[in-house]
């Protein structure tokens, strides 16, 4: 299957292939880095189109994803089965994200999006939306000019 | 399985004989160049050969006939015939025809259509009818276009197969056991099956181009900022664009022209002029012997390395040879940052989705699960409303944006985006366009990658970099590989400089009109016609 060959997560083995481009530095597998990932227990080599990046580290300040806690932050209820399934999948993907830590981005400015002209904001002036009745009709619980929600409790 | 799609021949002929438009496209000979549906429609209306109502009826018949198997649409408009009659009345009064008069258009379900369901294929928006039209829809209606319905997709655009729709799985018209690609799979398959003439999709990391490749149609992703996104349900705001599908380059280009331009409701839309694309679509009779003489084409080395199906590689190389035969100067280019685009893309897209999708709270619109406490209401509404892939991406994004992790993930991915933008800029200073395959393989089987996110993500390797750089790109069919009852289409991706869609359309149109040996009409359509 083509795309499996494109991106294969395989067991750790000696480094064997590096990018030659001057701006990419592959870290030694024994070095520690403040930006290294939590991969002590999951040494992986991630191979992309014939190139390999070692993401193996000995120390890390990052915690592996705690799905239940993330779900609480994101306000999504999950069943125990979903937590289990997400745990495995998310961990694999986050591990795979780890290869970005190997790229030397010193002195590279981040781009928030493609280059484009600025100054396209419209005047900050209120306008009347004619079809407001339709907006109200979409509200699941509505009572005379108010959105209705259950009681709000402060969590300790 | 295909036989189940074929109606009794007499029935299909009786149903479709009212429109020569459809039959002519479906039964065109193998070697004749494909014809623009939009221009053919216009000519037929102007000459009085047919009416918009007749055209609309024939498309609705085709939808009724093919939809039970293909499942491209989540909603078919009940106003199509009424809209058609109104345009016919305007024609009868001698009013000027808008450039999209009588054009039957499918719209991806994450684009808001006033009073018509717009769900982004998510349970959380089931039955939601927006109170406004997206700017692209308003433009289409103002120009005489008819929205025939809302097309299926991966929920909120998160997927590459359309299997992640909460409602149904769309199949590929070339082989009903295969995926149409995604996330705009419904829009691509609907055009391939001629259920509509053109359609709108959205492209965050390849969601127009990859399904175009899988379904054998043209998919056009414009420059970031070319088309207003007002009314597009946001997934990853730094990447999302609305794109166009057509069965020809001219159709995709004319639809793009219709929906392009600055919109005061979208501050990321650009004030750059929108050139008249139609002058690029010369008839094949007017081509010179080397119509693309001197056009510099760079073939991206990294896109033809290990991991790409041999059939796809061959088709791309043959397409490159065809461009050379047309007069192009072909060179190989390297984009050293190419392979980093995939993880950077998924960090950025997941992070931005976790923020964008926080608006779906079950309070202001969409489905609500009542609870005794407000946070529980949010959690249960979102827990029941979102599908598995959406939940996973929101959680990954939440992780990447967590305190202390932002610099290591989101910021770092944005720095990688800068590297990718620089590499593309350098390559496009040396070349007019760049080419690559649209995807590493042709359409694969339904269910094949459903439970393996990394395998699914890997299929986006050819397209995500273009979104990170914000560049325009077009995918058009360039060959067939083995598979399915009569082969599977493969798309060629052409990438241009920012706001230079005109060049892509020119090169693409000449390429398409001169390509010999393949007809990109799915077998089920040829059988119907």
TrEMBL record, chain A:
Name of the protein in question: Glutamyl-tRNA(Gln) amidotransferase subunit C, chloroplastic/mitochondrial
Q: Which family does it belong to?
A: Belongs to the GatC family.
Gene name for this UniProt entry = GATC
Catalysed reaction equations from the record: L-glutamyl-tRNA(Gln) + L-glutamine + ATP + H2O = L-glutaminyl-tRNA(Gln) + L-glutamate + ADP + phosphate + H(+)
User: Which residues belong to the signal peptide in this entry?
Assistant: none
EC number of the protein:
6.3.5.-
Q: Which NCBIfam families match?
A: gatC
Kindly state which keywords UniProt assigns to this record, in alphabetical order: ATP-binding, Chloroplast, Ligase, Mitochondrion, Nucleotide-binding, Plastid, Protein biosynthesis
The cross-references to HAMAP family, in alphabetical order and at most eight, read:
GatC
Report the GO terms under cellular component.
chloroplast; glutamyl-tRNA(Gln) amidotransferase complex; mitochondrion
Main subcellular location of this protein, as a coarse class: mitochondrion
- Subunit structure, as described in the record: Subunit of the heterotrimeric GatCAB amidotransferase (AdT) complex, composed of A, B and C subunits.
Q: Which GO terms describe its biological process?
A: glutaminyl-tRNAGln biosynthesis via transamidation; mitochondrial translation
Show the Pfam families listed in the entry.
GatC (PF02686)
Top-level taxonomy: Eukaryota, Viridiplantae, Streptophyta, Embryophyta, Tracheophyta
Please give the function described in this protein's UniProt entry: Allows the formation of correctly charged Gln-tRNA(Gln) through the transamidation of misacylated Glu-tRNA(Gln) in chloroplasts and mitochondria. The reaction takes place in the presence of glutamine and ATP through an activated gamma-phospho-Glu-tRNA(Gln).
Q: Which InterPro entries match?
A: Asp/Glu-ADT_sf_sub_c, GatC
> Record's superkingdom?
Eukaryota
Mention one GO molecular function. Answer: glutaminyl-tRNA synthase (glutamine-hydrolyzing) activity
List localization entries. Answer: Mitochondrion; Plastid, Chloroplast
Automatic annotation (TrEMBL), chain B:
Q: Out of the domains of life, which is the source? A: Eukaryota
Q: Name one GO cellular component term.
A: glutamyl-tRNA(Gln) amidotransferase complex
What residues form the catalytic site here? Answer: 108, 183, 207
Q: Which InterPro entries match?
A: Amidase, Amidase_CS, Amidase_dom, AS_sf, GatA
Q: Name one GO molecular function term.
A: ATP binding
What range(s) does the Amidase domain occupy?
A: 54-505
> Any idea which UniProt keywords this protein has?
ATP-binding, Chloroplast, Ligase, Mitochondrion, Nucleotide-binding, Plastid, Protein biosynthesis
Xref: SUPFAM superfamilies: Amidase signature (AS) enzymes
Task: Write down the chemical reaction(s) this protein catalyses.
Answer: L-glutamyl-tRNA(Gln) + L-glutamine + ATP + H2O = L-glutaminyl-tRNA(Gln) + L-glutamate + ADP + phosphate + H(+)
Family per record: Belongs to the amidase family. GatA subfamily.
> Subunit arrangement?
Subunit of the heterotrimeric GatCAB amidotransferase (AdT) complex, composed of A, B and C subunits.
Its recorded name reads: Glutamyl-tRNA(Gln) amidotransferase subunit A, chloroplastic/mitochondrial
Q: Which organism is it from?
A: Cardamine amara subsp. amara
The gene behind this protein is GATA
């Amino acid at each position: 299957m083509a795309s499996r060959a494109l991106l294969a997560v395989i067991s750790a083995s000696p480094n064997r292939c590096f990018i030659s481009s001057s701006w990419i530095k592959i870290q030694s597998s024994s070095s520690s880095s403040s930006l290294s990932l939590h991969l002590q227990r999951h040494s992986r080599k991630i191979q992309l189109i014939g190139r390999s990046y070692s993401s193996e580290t000995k120390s890390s300040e990052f915690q592996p994803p705690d799905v239940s806690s993330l779900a609480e932050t994101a306000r999504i209820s999950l069943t125990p089965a979903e937590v289990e399934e997400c745990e495995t999948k998310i961990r694999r993907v986050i591990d795979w994200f780890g290869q970005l830590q190997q790229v030397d981005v010193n002195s590279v400015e981040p781009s928030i999006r493609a280059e484009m002209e600025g100054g396209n904001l419209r005047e900050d002036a209120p306008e009347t939306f004619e079809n407001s009745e339709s907006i109200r009709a979409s509200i699941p619980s509505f009572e005379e000019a108010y959105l209705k929600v259950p009681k709000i409790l402060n969590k300790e | 399985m295909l036989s189940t799609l074929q109606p009794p021949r007499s029935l299909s002929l009786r149903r479709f004989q009212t429109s020569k438009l459809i039959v002519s496209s479906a039964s065109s000979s193998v070697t004749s160049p494909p014809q623009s549906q939009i221009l053919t429609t216009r000519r037929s209306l102007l000459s009085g050969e047919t009416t918009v109502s007749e055209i609309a009826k024939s498309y609705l018949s085709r939808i009724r006939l093919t939809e039970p198997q293909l499942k491209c649409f989540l909603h078919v408009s009940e106003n199509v015939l009424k809209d058609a009659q109104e345009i016919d009345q305007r024609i009868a009064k001698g009013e000027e025809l808008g450039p999209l008069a009588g054009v039957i258009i499918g719209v991806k379900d994450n684009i808001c259509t006033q009073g018509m369901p717009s769900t982004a294929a998510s349970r959380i928006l089931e039955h939601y009818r927006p109170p406004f039209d997206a700017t692209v829809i308003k433009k289409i209606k103002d120009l005489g276009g008819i929205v025939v319905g809302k097309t299926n997709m991966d929920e909120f655009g998160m997927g590459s197969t359309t299997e992640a729709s909460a409602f149904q799985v769309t199949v590929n018209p070339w082989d009903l056991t295969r995926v149409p690609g995604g996330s705009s799979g419904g829009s691509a398959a609907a055009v391939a099956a001629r259920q509509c003439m053109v359609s709108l999709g959205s492209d965050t990391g390849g969601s127009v181009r990859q399904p175009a490749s899988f379904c054998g149609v043209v998919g056009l992703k414009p420059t970031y900022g070319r088309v207003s996104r007002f009314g597009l349900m946001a997934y990853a705001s730094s990447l999302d664009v609305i794109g166009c599908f057509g069965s020809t380059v001219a159709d995709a280009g004319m639809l793009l022209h219709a929906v392009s331009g600055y919109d005061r409701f979208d501050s990321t839309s650009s004030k750059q002029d929108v050139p008249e694309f139609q002058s690029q679509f010369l008839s094949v009779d007017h081509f010179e012997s080397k119509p693309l003489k001197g056009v510099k084409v760079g073939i991206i080395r990294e896109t033809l390395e290990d991991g790409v199906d041999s059939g796809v590689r061959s088709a791309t190389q043959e397409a490159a040879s065809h461009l050379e035969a047309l007069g192009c100067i072909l060179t190989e280019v390297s984009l050293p940052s190419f392979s980093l685009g995939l993880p950077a893309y998924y960090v950025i897209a997941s992070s931005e989705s976790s923020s964008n999708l926080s608006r779906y709270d079950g309070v202001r619109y969409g489905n609500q699960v009542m609870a005794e406490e407000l946070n529980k209401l949010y959690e249960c509404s979102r827990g029941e409303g979102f599908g598995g892939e959406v939940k996973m991406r929101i959680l990954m994004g939440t992780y990447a944006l967590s305190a202390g992790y932002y610099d290591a993930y989101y910021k770092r991915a944005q720095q990688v985006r800068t590297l990718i933008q620089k590499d593309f800029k350098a390559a496009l200073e040396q070349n007019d366009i760049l080419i690559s395959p649209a995807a590493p393989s042709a359409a694969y089987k339904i269910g094949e990658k459903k439970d393996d996110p990394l395998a699914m993500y890997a299929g986006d390797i050819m397209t995500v970099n273009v979104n990170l750089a914000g560049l325009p790109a077009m995918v058009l069919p360039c060959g067939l590989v083995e598979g399915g009852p009569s082969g599977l289409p493969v798309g060629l991706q052409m990438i241009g400089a920012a706001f230079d869609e005109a060049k892509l359309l020119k090169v693409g149109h000449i390429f398409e009109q001169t390509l010999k040996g393949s007809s990109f009409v799915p077998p089920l359509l040829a059988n119907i016609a």
